[in-house]
Amino acid sequence: xxxxxxxxxxxxxxxxxxxxxxxxxxxxxxxxxxxxxxxxxxxxxxxxxxxxxxxxxxxxxxxxxxxxxxxxxxxxxxxxxxxxxxxxxxxxxxxxxxxxxxxxxxxxxxxxxxxx
Length: 116
What we know:
It contains five helices and no strands. It is elongated and about 75 Å long. The chain has helices at 6-16, 21-42, 47-58, 61-69, 81-109. 9% of the residues are buried.
């Protein structure tokens, strides 16, 4: 492969835009080199097909960026999960009935009454 194709460039751009700015250049160079070396090692006549296979094997660029940035892909980590469940339970058991009751009272006051 005599350079990088648009597919590789798009993949690398998607990875590096999700990592800290100070790491982007090094990671981009490393990814370009890794992809080119892997495609070359396959020795296939169709380098575009080999490149597509390599990128598919590398996986989702978002997941790869998370590995480079050493960040988990979780909204709520294990340390906050019990607190989250408690808060969610309290909110659902208090706010939902209050909203339902207020809505019913407003319907009655508007003269609509309960829906049939």
